Amino acid sequence: MFNIKNHELYIDQVAVTSLAKKYGTPLYVYSENKIIEQLDTIKSAFLDKYPDTHAAFACKAFCTKYMCRLLEKEGFWLDVVSGGELYTAIKSDFPADRIEFNGNNKSDEELIMALDYGINRFVVDNASELYHLEKLCIDKSVKANVLFRITPEVSANTHDFISTGKKDSKFGIPLDDAILYPLIEAAIKSDVVHFLGFHFHVGSQLHESNTHLSALEVILKLILNTKERFNYTISDFNLGGGFGIKYTDADHPIALTEFIKPLMHRLDTFCASHEIKRPHVSMEPGRYIVGEAGIQLYTIGNIKVIPEVKTYASIDGGMTDNVRPGLYGAKYHALIANKADLEKDTLLDISGKCCESTDILIKGLSVPSPERGDILTVFSTGAYGYSMANNYNKLQIPAVVVVKADEHELIVRRQSYDEMIEREV
Ligand SMILES: Cc1ncc(COP(=O)(O)O)c(C=O)c1O
């Protein structure tokens, strides 16, 4: 995906600085080849290897019409968590029967929108949602497929802020018999929802599958108890997303095929030993599909040297276009695209231009002597960058460009100042 010619960094066959020049900075850039490579890995590690499976892109990672169209073409499903994400899918003509709806507080308006579009399934997060959904289904004389998101009470080995399966999590139905089983029974007996099975998502940026394996044991017990108590065999199980990527040299996530293999093996042996038909299995990765496929470009501006303390290089973006370092200490690697293989002699902290001391994108980055006008390239920014972008300090949301071999296409244009204030009276 990357190579260097004449000290210049290339993404696929396009010089990074030429993109900065043409589209301006800050800029989000994606390699389409890399996205497709990731989708192909999901096909070979999961979809083609195990029958009766599907994979949905957790579109929160990079929700754009471009992604919806690409995923549609590649045969993937879409996992949405809001009316806005669903609207993006609808406007991209994404097939309703390949959409699932997650989220811990779907409003009536969002549920109606999803029912009207006829999406495939809802991942119900709590009791109140089930009852509201049933009411709306009765009003509309439709039936909805539902899975229950279970809080599996496992602690993922990742940053606390992206760990979602712990007992005290805001997500999912608690593992409490008095809450869970009446809800399962209600869904099974309901005339307006069709109970498919269970879902969990234990956290993000996971480097190994041990937490998934622990969560799976919880689900297996539920599958068995549901059969014994209600004589009901679930048809579907969704193992969530969370597969880790490489942000820096410190990241060593195991290969997807290795991540998935023990889970599928355990599920198969469990089902065989209990004479239960193995449920349809789905996953919903976000970061894994787009994370490493994306880079961000910035222009270096002021350089502040504090003698014997540190040197800051300020960039023309920051926590508005990548909030992850400020939000939960996410780490990134970067280099100067126009000095890609020159000797590194300066240690920098890369500071954003927002009026917050926490707006530091990278600490302790080694670079060749930096100058105003250099193009900084930050790697593995394809997930949760554009989708978390905001207008703090009234900074504009940057444009998004997709590189296809030696070509490039603008898929989101930069927000204008007028667009920023057009809703204000
Ligand atoms: C329910 C659910 N599924 C899938 C994902 C995608 O996670 P990741 O991008 O780490 O694969 C998330 C992330 O927040 C999630 O909450």
Automatic annotation (TrEMBL):
Pathway entry: Amino-acid biosynthesis; L-lysine biosynthesis via DAP pathway; L-lysine from DL-2,6-diaminopimelate: step 1/1
One GO MF term: diaminopimelate decarboxylase activity
Cofactor(s) required, per the database record: pyridoxal 5'-phosphate
Record keywords, A-Z: Amino-acid biosynthesis, Decarboxylase, Lyase, Lysine biosynthesis, Pyridoxal phosphate
Binding-site residues, pyridoxal 5'-phosphate: G242, E284, P285, G286, R287, Y384
Coiled coil: none
Catalyzed reactions per annotation: meso-2,6-diaminopimelate + H(+) = L-lysine + CO2
EC code(s) of this entry: 4.1.1.20
Keyword Amino-acid biosynthesis: yes
Orn/DAP/Arg decarboxylase 2 C-terminal domain sequence ranges: 28-382
Residues annotated for substrate binding in this entry: R287, R324, Y328, E356, Y384
Alphabetized InterPro entries for the sequence: Ala_racemase/Decarboxylase_C, DAP_deCOOHase_LysA, De-COase2_C, De-COase2_N, Orn/DAP/Arg_de-COase, PLP-binding_barrel
Orn/DAP/Arg decarboxylase 2 N-terminal domain span: 36-291
Keyword Lyase annotated: yes
Family recorded in the similarity comment: Belongs to the Orn/Lys/Arg decarboxylase class-II family. LysA subfamily.
Record's subunit section: Homodimer.
Function field: Specifically catalyzes the decarboxylation of meso-diaminopimelate (meso-DAP) to L-lysine.
Protein name, per record: Diaminopimelate decarboxylase
